[in-house]
Input
Amino acid sequence: MSKVHVQTTINGEAVEYLCEPQQSFLDVLREDLLKQGTKEGCATGDCGACSVLLDGRLVCACLMLGVEAEGRTLTTIEGIASDDGLHPIQQKFLEHAALQCGICTPGFIVATKALLDKNPNPDETTIRYWLAGNLCRCTGYDKIVRAVQAAAEELAQEA
Amino acid sequence: MGEFAYVAPATVADTVAVLEEHASAGKRAQVLAGGTDLLVQLRGSDNEPRTIVDIKQLDETNRLDIGADEIFIGAAIASAVLYENEELKALLPGLLESSDLIGSTQIQGRCTIGGNLCNSSPAADTTPAIIVDSGVCVIATNSGTRELPAEDFCTGVGTNVLAPGEFLLGLKFPRPGAGTSDAYLRFIPRTEMDIAVVGVAVNVTLDDTGTCTAARVAIGAVAPTPLMVPAAADALIGTQVDDDALAAAGVRCTEASSPISDKRGTAEYRRKVVAVLCRRAGAIARDRAMGVS
Amino acid sequence: MAEAVDYKYIGTSPVRPDGVDKVTGRAQFAADQNMPNTLYGKILRSPHAHANIKSVDVSKALAMEGVYAAVSGADFPGGARGKVGGEGGGDIGDVARNIMARDKALYHGHAVAAVAATSLTIADAALAMIDVEYETLAPVLDVVAAMAADSPLLDATNFTKNLPETPDKPSNIASVTVLTRGNVDEGFEQADVTVEGEYHIPMAHQGYIEPHACTATVNEEGKATVWCSTQGHFEFRSMTSKILDWKVGDLKFIPAEIGGGFGGKTTVYLEPVAVLLSKLAGRPVKMMMSREEVFRATGPTSGSVCRVKVGAKKDGTITAAKAWLAYEAGAFAGAPIGPGAMAIFAPYVLENFHVEAHDVLVNKPKVAAYRAPGAPQSMHAMEIALDDIAREIGMDPLDLRLKNAASEGTRAPYGPKFPAIGFKECLEAAKAHPNYTAPVPEGAGRGVAAGFWFNIGMQSSAEVRINEDGTVIIMEGNPDIGGSRASMCLMAAETLGVDYERVKAYIGDTESTGFCNVTGGSRTTFATGMAVVQACEDIIAQCKARAAATWGVDEDQVEWEDGQAIPAPGVNADVTPMSLADVMASAHKTGGPLLGRASLNASGAGASFSVNFVDLMVDKETGKVDVLAFTAIQDAGTAIHPAYVEGQMQGGAAQGLGWALNEEYIYDADGVMENAGFLDYRVPVASDLPMIDCQIIEVPNPRHPYGVRGVGETPIVAPLAAAANAVRAATGVRINDLPLSPPNILAAIDSD
Output
């Protein structure tokens, strides 16, 4: 079968690749581009481990075709930290022990970035509903929610 | 078997042409909007090769118009984009809520109400709301477009009226006037992420005295297709949409339902809860129509 | 009881050593392993829950372009029913047949063949070309029906074990466990009240977010290297060696970062298959399960039926208790009936009890460990019964438990006397907790329950290496599933007297560190932690010897304080204290680099008790439960890293609540699981839960140098009954069965 040529931007870098027409963007990221910080937990949009930003909007990489990245701008977990170091969201996840096994963590951090970009001061309920598509089986979410709250405070002080 | 292919035509005519070519050649083509159902199908049991026809490059499917008389929502507009439109949210709060209930924030970033309708699941969250808001399907055909009331769109579990070569361009709604509003409630076991076990949408128009002059009620996940329940609407019309009227409408919903028992709930459970949700959604629509927030 | 000790590092909650890699996406999980020329391996699974396999023909798949290997049960050693050898806690022959069916498919999803191909697409296409001829059999799905004499049999050679007399007919009951003391009939005669009930709990899955994955590569010498997601790479090596009949020394297992396990990754599924495929293909083979495969074909925990009868006096004294347990083993023997039977009455002083537990074969996946395996099911029944007794005699449920609570010296139902334990302390803390003294919110219900887990010791090894700058490297062999590397570093920092930041812990592969049993049984911080402490003590002893030699004094004239060797008080020597870096600087003159080591078989794991209470609201028109508040109180022994102890308590509470409210394996009449995905296997999402308040009780375990008990498993036990008791309080209706899903609750309310 013939592959499709795709030109896109991932974490600020121009990237091109060939992919099968039906291949998910998650498969392209993980198996072809070897950007493996984005995780597969279900491949059906139910767990959020593959959360990425598509033109700034939060989506599941597993529910997007590789070909659909053409001409778009994507951010993955590898693009969250900057040259200055960890993003405050990452720092607060560490400080608040908001991860145990860590497989869901990239997805949560990307999802939290999307939330705080849109709503810098979310209340607990807003945080919980925004993150309802990100499953964590280790933490019971308590420390994750606190880390998000702390990150929001930190970002508000920086602003 | 054939092979997988992907096309993203630039015009409606090209899109129809691609779909028709495939139909006449006996090859499978499938329209891609948000992809939140399609990609799950590809990953699951239905991984048969086909041509994926992306309609997101079309102007018409991306058009959102809020006119003086009519609202048009293109079939490729993601739920999250709709929900950020405050004007639309004020006009069709029930529809927007139903759209906002589909899946997670991540799903919201991709899924569309057009796709929700075309997937034609009995449990589709937006379909009952589209129906009660008098949504009209605008369908691209080889001779232009045709229009069809949303309640006539789904024909069974996963099936609809779209003929080979046709696809949904978008949905048209009459702009609601003063005294008209809608609400949608669904029941799920968790707070998020589930498929509706029962869904009920209600749209009411009240006059200055609070008397209901028009109503539409639709139910989801309790029959092979989302269903209009005129008898429930009749139970509201001419009343103050008080508790008795709402309870009567609820009973009509139960009577109209023909649910099955499955992994998401029993038939008995669905029959009971459809009445409960009808009452609750009706009360919300009433309060909204009266301007009570 | 040991007095609380002031520690410098223990009891603090610093950032974990592996944290940065996990928040940036750098951490390497099993599916993140990549090698050139890697093939993708995929498994063909039985579409039938119960069938004889007449034949498997992989030749058409093998002939396909891009397919490099294809195997079925016949390609594995041991023949159709081969018993490969013994393995603690299970039969390795069963494991072998579980990962690749031989003559029989025993559950829907049972592996029957596998291929390795150049792409996932080709591998999928190849699976479709494998011909399997089945003769379908009636599936056995109900645990009680499976026990009947006329039930179809999964295994015609299974004769129930542990019966007083050897049975003359085969059955689906794999074994029976009986635990008894005193005279229950006399005990019930003394009772003023008795309650009795039958309680059903469905099969549930651990639900770790990372699907099983591995990559295996076999070289021309026949040596295999396997990267995998495992809770115990040494045991994975051992199982793979036995299943394939390979030498242990020809297998190297490298544990990747593990994306959750909760017991479910203590046994192999893919690894032996990947090794065999790689050997045949001559290329690396990567295998990744889909989420659906995880649900259908890895080990959940047993569904169960428990019948319990409890008698008590008006003052609350329990006079007798009786339990009959039947646990689903799945397709092969091994339901956790032993722990279920031993745990059910463990929190209480009981003179008269009798438990009979059954391990029952059904056509469902072979169960695996899941957090306190066996205890949630049986204790759910007991903790509900106690709630009903408390209501009947008008006693606070915490007071009822206090009246009967086990404490130091109580003889546990399973034999030994408890050393210092913290159950009473947990109950007292619950009574005094502001969340408990606060009134129950209007319309809500509050439920209380206790939890318990034994915890285990077992074998561990650790090495401590000192770098030339005095920084410390810990090498141990327990995959870190919830932050254990941080705990190892804290214990090492405390023991050595060096800053936490100067200590790093690593998980070695099977060839770079000594043997460790699985990360399981809440043993890692306890047993491997003990090995780390002893290895640090070894370093200290060596440093003291080096300092003594340097200073020209006797070894007993050197002490270790704040990370330095110093002269003992009264020793007349004008010397400069020697830090780890100082010792290393002169190591070439004193005997070479510092390397400490310890290996042990730890005993003395301390039992951990908990008390949970939950406030929840029930929508009486829809049956929907809204969890308003949850409080978890648990004796952790000394909390080494309190934030991660809380994390265990909160995570266990969430899993327990999920199981209580919505999680269940739903089967159709043919034995096909209908909800094999996160859409309909409904684990709690963030918006389902409130903050989970924790209170850590610290009654140090006298058998650990720092008082560690182990905390990971107890937290899942109490939430099941706590939720059931809260629903009872909120609705006035007692529901004995889980899940407390909206349809089940509404049906119970409406039929009341």
